[in-house]
Amino acid sequence: MAEYLVCSEHEIVDGGRKVVACGDKEIGIFRVKGALHAWHNMCPHRQGPICQGRIYPEVVEPVDENCEVRTLQYNEGNMHVACPWHGWEFNLETGRNPVGRYRLHRAELAIREGQVYVVL
Fold it and tell me: Where is the Rieske domain (predicted)?
């Protein structure tokens, strides 16, 4: 296994990210609700750079009694990233696509003495 020093633990603010090269892999590290999550920078759909995508709250489409959507709402408790190539979205904490069939590939993190390392 190889370890790659990324940054200090506090350099990635809540809601922020850092994308780094680790050998021949790119890894995106995100801070969500105070916790760090690391994902390989490859969308399972068409291998796009998922970690460079837009970060936003989960979009909820409330359906009324006539089975129509009148407005969009956001679930601030679930932050998502959308692939810049085709818009596929994934939960930043679980790596799951809302449909549930696809998921991101997690990368292992180690934190020692205030420094963040990716372990591959």
Answer: 4-118
- Average pLDDT of the segment spanning 6-20: 96
Give the 3-state secondary structure of the chain. CCEEEEEEHHHCCCCCEEEEEECCEEEEEEEECCEEEEEECCCCCCCCCHHHCEEEEEEECCECCCCCECCCEEEEEEEEEECCCCCCEEECCCCECCCCCCECCECEEEEECCEEEEEC
pLDDT tens digits for range 75-117: 999 999 999 999 999 999 999 998 878 999 999 999 999 999 9
pTM of the model: 0.89
Give CA–CA dist 53/56, Å, rounded.
10
> Mind listing the domains of the chain with CATH numbers?
3-119 (2.102.10.10)
Q: What confidence tier does 62 reach under pLDDT thresholds 50, 70, 90?
A: confident
